[in-house]
Specification:
With 164 residues, the protein is mainly alpha-helical. It is 71% helix and 0% strand. The chain has a domain at 37-150. The protein has helices spanning 2-48, 56-63, 65-68, 73-86, 96-110, 118-122, 128-150.
């Protein structure tokens, strides 16, 4: 046996060590990609948590929770509770922000952001300019629609095609 190891030990180590390292690299990349997906989802939700109306990015992030956090039942239960609170007829509709904070807190805990508190998650900066701009856009859109509705040609083609 000792002679076998002397003769073939180096060959075995040269062959097996790269395979072992390759396998560890694959495992590491898999774990990193899963963590990156969780982190990107969390950051997307944090960036859009107070937008009204809710952004499509927030809706996309919420719809990915069941897949990305498939192994974390606490996050999935928090998502289910938040989802139920979003329904207009839900008894918890008025408190849906509390359910969102619970969800974000569970995701933060899963990502090992254990020191972040719900009060910190709830804090959000939005410059007044953004709100003023949205109000102006709504006013302009309303005025354009009013003018169009009161015009003579609203809803009728300018040059109707007459069959011959």
């Amino acid at each position: 046996m000792e002679q076998f190891l002397k003769d073939y030990g180096q060959l075995i180590s040269v062959t097996l060590i790269p395979i072992f390292i390759w396998f560890l690299g694959i495992k590491f990349q898999d774990r990193k990609s899963k963590r990156d997906a969780k982190l990107n989802l969390f950051l997307q939700m944090m960036a859009n948590r107070k937008k009204f109306p809710p952004s499509p990015l927030m809706a996309d992030a919420l719809n990915q929770i069941d897949v990305i956090f498939q192994n974390n039942q606490k996050v999935r239960n928090s998502w289910k509770a938040y989802f139920d609170s979003l329904h207009p007829n839900s008894q918890h509709n008025e408190n849906s922000n509390s359910f969102l904070l619970d969800l974000l807190s569970e995701i933060a805990h899963d990502l090992k952001y254990d020191r972040i508190k719900q009060t910190e998650i709830d804090r959000f900066y939005s410059p007044r300019f953004f709100d003023d701009q949205l109000i102006r856009q709504n006013e302009i859109g309303g005025e354009v629609l009013r003018v169009l509705k009161n015009s003579e040609n609203y809803g009728t083609p300018r040059n109707p095609i007459v069959p011959q």
